[in-house]
Amino acid sequence: MADPREGIRSLLHAQIEDIWGAGRTELVARNYAGDVVDHMPVPGQPAGRAALAEVVTAFRAGIPDLRMALHATLVAGDFGVDVWTLTGTHLGPLLGHPASGRPIAIAGIDMVRVAYGRIGELWHVEEMGLLLQQIGAQDYAFGAPLGSPESLAIPEPAGHRRPAAEAHVPGEASFTARERRNLAIARRHIGELWGEGRTELAEALFHPAIVDHNPAPGQRPGIPGILDVLHWLREAVPDLALTVEAFVVEGDLVCDRWSMTGTHTGAPLMGIEPGGRRFAIRGMDVVRIDDAGLITDVWHAEEFAQLRAQIG
Asked: I need a surface site. Which of 112, 237, 242, 307 has the fewest CB within 10 A?
């Protein structure tokens, strides 16, 4: 009997390498359910399967030499995750902006749920803010349809709780002992270090030579750089609240999907002075955990374009 995980992995490879990388949009009808739900559509994207092909076509028209590099896939239960980077040149209209001729390099993470051999749900986070900056479109109105906390329908966390404790974990019953250990480490990483600001956990969670594959501009290497980012975020948003929605675990890789709410009342954030504005954004992380139980690599993508639109 064929391993169902390999079927999901094949869909992930096709999504990145064939549909996006080679522009084979005819595969959308084969690989996605007719009523597929894209939980994170680009602004103005209509619902349904046909819209997914239209988005690919639009991006490839704006970036004719678009290339995709698939760095990792992980599968558990009926969920799959891929980690990728996109490179190319802005040679055509893109997101309402004319060709700039500038090079583009962004990263992203996708999470899918598969049923009956097709993708039925899709979550994805890309470095859209970086893309807009690279094509000279910092003023792009990235506010619809996800431009306000209300439109995201993210509930406010109630009281003190562990935000990662109730996250959905597909396939958990079949985890190996090592995968159960890695899930526990990932819960502490996103739920306690990031969600609760417990910076004292960093030395216990991270390898001294940890690599952040998507660092912020000017971020220092290793653990100090990651803690810098955590500190500036919490200084800017004292009431930051993070809810972890799902974990996908396979071998030494763990993906988490989260949502974050807060009020920009503290220090400047992304160069923007505090204005007391509420925001709600989402993101995903993938971490690699070694034999000693230390995180050696982290890939992450956040809706920073949405954040800038909401607080700016």
From this structure: 242
Give the residue among 163, 125, 157, 156 at the shortest CA–CA distance from 306: 125
The residue that leads in pLDDT, 21 or 155, is: 21
User: Does position 223 have pLDDT exceeding 90, yes or no?
Assistant: yes
- Could you tell me whether strands 278-289 and 206-212 are parallel, antiparallel, or unpaired per DSSP bridges? unpaired
The dihedrals phi and psi of 159, each to the nearest 5 degrees, come to 65, -170
Single out the residue of 124, 100, 104 nearest to residue 112, CA to CA: 124
Sheet holding 241-250, edge to edge: 206-212, 295-302, 278-289, 253-263, 241-250
pTM of the model: 0.91
Among residues 120, 127, 76, the alpha carbon closest in space to that of 305 is found at 127
Token digits of residue 48: 């349904």
Q: What angle do CA 72, 104, 234 make, to 5 degrees?
A: 70
Give 41-96 pLDDT, tens digit per residue: 887 788 889 999 999 999 999 999 999 999 999 999 999 999 999 999 999 999 88
The answer to whether 43 and 145 have CB atoms below 8 angstroms apart is: yes
CA distance 121 to 153: 17
Q: Look up residue 193 and give its DSSP letter.
A: I
Whether the upstream peptide bond of residue 98 has omega within 30° of 0, thus cis, is: no
Q: How far is residue 170 CA from its own chain's centroid?
A: 18
